[in-house]
Amino acid sequence: MKKAFVFWFTILLAAFIAMPMQAAQEKKAKDPVVKVGVIDMQKIMRESKAAKNAQAAFRKDLDAKRGVLAAKQQEIRVMEEELKGADPRLADEARRQKAEKLTREIRELKLLTADMEDELKRKDVELTQKIVGEVIRVVNAYAKKENITLIFERSAVVALDQAVDITSTIIQLYDAGK
Question: What's the predicted TM-score (pTM) here?
Answer without folding.
Answer: 0.66
